[in-house]
Amino acid sequence: MCCLTDSGNVTTDVDSLRSEIRDKSVRVIDVRREGDYKQDHIPTAVNLPLANLLSDDSPERVLKLVNSMGIDDETHVVVYDDTFGALASRVAWTLEYVGHSNVTLLETTYDHWKSLGLENDSTVPEIQSKEHSMKLQPDILATSNYLETAKTKDDVILIDNRERLNFLEQHIPGAISLPYRTLASDDKILRSKEDMKRLLENRGITGDSEIITYCGSVGTLSGLAYYALKSAGLSNTKLYVRSFKEWKNLEKPTEKQEDASYWDLSAE
Amino acid sequence: MTISDLKQSPPDSVKSKINWGKVEEADNFAKTVKLFRQGKYDEDSFRRFRLQHGAYGTRMTSDYAMVRIKLPAGEIYPDQIEKISQLSEQYSIGSAHFSTRENIQLHWIILEDVSEIFRSLAEVGLTSREACGNSVRNVMCSPLSGVCPDEEFDSTPYALATARFFLRNPMAQNLPRKFKFNFTCCEKHGMVRMVDVGLIPQIRDVDGSPQRGFKIFLGGGLGNKSFVGHQLEDFTPEEDLLYTSIAVMRIFDRLGDRKNLARNRMRYLVNDMGWEKFQNLVLKERSVVRATQSVITQLDVDHTPNEIKRPIRISDESGSDTAPNGFARWLKTNTVKQTQSDYRSVFLTLEAGDITASQLYALADIIRNFSSEGKARSGFAQNIALRYVHEDDLPRLYSKLIEVGLAKSGALTMTAPIGCSGTTSCNLALTNSHRLAKEIQRKFLELKLDEDDDLSDSSIKISGCPNSCGQHGIATIGFFGGGGRVGKDMYANYQMSIGGRSDGDTMLGQTLLRVPAKRVIPVLLKIIEIFKENKKSDDTLKTWIHRVVNGNEDSEIKSIVEIKKILEPLITPPTIEEDPDFYLDYGSDSSYHTKTGKGECAA
Predict the structure, then answer these.
(1) Is any Cβ of chain B less than 8 angstroms from the Cβ of A199?
(2) Strand order through the sheet with B489-498
(3) Which of B25, B163, B254, B573 is the most exposed, having the fewest neighbouring CB atoms within 10 Å of its CB?
(4) Cβ–Cβ below 8 Å for A259 and B59
């Protein structure tokens, strides 16, 4: 287990990553589409498009992918994307789930990395496969059954990370709305620890409560929220990874904001 | 190297000289919300506190608030627009709303997040303080002040100074009711006779030298009962502006009705007392104020002229000299010539004031690149004005606006109706006036009615209840929402009035008849048809209706009674079996019923 996540840092800053790349002490994962990756990426990064991971995210397959990316139990992994950290979060969370705790998110997006004029290339690194052990972490996963029981408890907070309009229209009963956009700051995928703490405290998201996050379909936006909460020291958090899409498919109860035509206030 | 070192702010970004915000108020608000949720703050005190800070209640829920951001004198700067764009995505519904009183509203904000918004607003010098509640609301100024060919001088610095004087001023924290100032440029652009204090800049020759001052109108206002304001005196010299404002507020503070919430705006006091008596009181009070105030109590009017600097273009897109399709129509219906040669003011058409986060974000750069004053103004009609755009830059600006979906024509015509927020967020609303305004706009633009010169000086304004936030009383054709009924089935139904106006001949519209929501568009088109059949060659719809409501029309339409007769067949409700859609309000797929919560205007 490594120190970085234990000390509460869920992101790696630009300068640290650059020096870790120089020291060859990091495995960087680019989760963008293959075509984008091939054009250019952060030097030494390997490509694991989120869609590829999601095509089969059984622990066995994930472990194979981890091995093939040359990651063993000790490797520090940094994940990045160009979609405000949400896709990177989903990949990072999956790594955590199979037992790799030493994983962090790049503090910013690849777009921003490039706009800063930082180094990038199109070289696909040659990777030597490694052996990672399997240590499933069921504590960070919420299934629909789990959620259904858990959300009736007083000390469980259920957070919906979709946009406000979607939340108003339909959500899991008892959920509170914390749109994913709220989590970021100007250039960073997550706001500073202090800002995050204040935001969450105002919303009563504090202390020892168990927290479950969900979003629209595959746990990306809520994956980002998972790391946002962690960054503020709230580590008793689970991701309902199949999210609202599954909940609806299972025809479980939902609730909505009644008696207001809020959609008509939107300029979309 | 850190990221912030590398981040460049775009060149020539003009910033507000005045910081209206106070970050301590964010902390205080967060703390108070916590106490309230813990039951340590009673409901009424909390509501007053919340409103004083600019957070209004939301339809049928206490979980959400609307944050009303004040734009004093309507001015808004690029960095402020970017911030509001970001806030709308973070805490609201991904859109922001330009109001009729030069505020920007963020709706469906979780009450516990409001303090975060205050904090961010303070970073860019904005506040929502005293945007609601019994205080001096946003001080308005004409979007054309400073560029209007008909104005005698620019009243903007006076509007800003007035806003500054009263914001957080102890004398304005607990008035009997809200209190509104409107400054304008000239009679034509109006809006001064339907507000507590309305001011038109005037220059008088005093002993051979020109003296600045104002025509001041008092006691007007739109609401459940509307009144037209009265002119205080011929001419109020500028040094008396503050004394007069204080005097009026002191009288209102002392004598205003603090018990009857439905009748406590100053206009009721003026009406009950009679204008002459009120006028005398104000003049007397002003002498007292003048005599007792220290000489240093003066408005801090900043006369530094704005820097007008045409933005330098570094890269020019090739081939952009040819204007895209629709340019002529847009130029005609969305821009006005300024008094400064070679410059125009450009109005952006919004749908009932709504604008998306990404449009706002793009707008900030558009302002930097096209407005030679480097800022924008909120208009009187839920729109945005970009001033000091050089004539030569207009085609390129139009292309840019097309790219971001802000190039719709008709901003300055009847095809851009006002619609208050209605049932989209307001506790008092009976109908979805907001959506109706959008439906009318879409239909009218499709019919290209914005290009019809006969219609351009008319207006359509819609409120979702009788309380007039949609300003229906001063519209050429105005509507306010209510419910209609056939047997047990209810439908959204609007009271229609015609002939209202807010210029030098300000008058309130005359009630004509009730029009079901789903018949509003056919009725409007019918009125236009009747007008076309009976108009004289130089008539506009506005002048023609003005003659009709004043009984001066000599065609077969002698009075509004004839118009009513023609329209009546259009408004007969079908049965629910014949036309189920008739019984649904716009934007709703469930049966219509009137449902309201507690209003907070009066709290």
Answers:
(1) yes
(2) B418-419, B460-463, B477-486, B489-498, B510-516
(3) B254
(4) yes
